[in-house]
Amino acid sequence: MNQEEFLLQHLTEGKKYQQICNENESISLTNLREWWETGQELRAQIKRSNILFDSRKGKEEFAEFQKAGKRAFFEWYRKQPRHCAYCGITEDKLQKLFDYTTGSLSTKRKRGRSLELERRDSKSNEYSPKNCVLACYFCNNHKSDVITEEEHRLYFAPQIKKYLEDKYTQLQEDDNR
């Protein structure tokens, strides 16, 4: 067992520290505590994946992901590019733009800092590995179920990216003053 496997078992499968130690005799509680402390980046990724999973848990249209479980959903999530599938804005730029204290953008429900789960074909209403991508708050909300993926990429995504890149540039310039 390694740190990643420990964090996945603990955070996606709900295994307790003691259970993990019992199943892996060469691992001590001290090892697990150390792995917890030093695994902040992976823990953050798993936490974001779990939030996306839990927000749709129990919904019929999420059945394929739910049947596979949180761990499989995380494996899908971690393979996704860390930029919006439509406009291409990177997640690190979104985090800065929507930062609660220094960012220039905000939403009432505190969305925007992370990429969101988006159905490519909204009319199918199915959340599945084939039909889902990660998208920024703006593209996810704008595309909705009226505009097709192709139409959004052609007519709207370039302007959304320009807006976000301009806002990011302005934020950087303000920081340098």
UniProtKB/TrEMBL annotation:
Domain of life assignment: Bacteria
Species the sequence originates in: Pontibacter actiniarum
The protein depicted here goes by the name HNH endonuclease
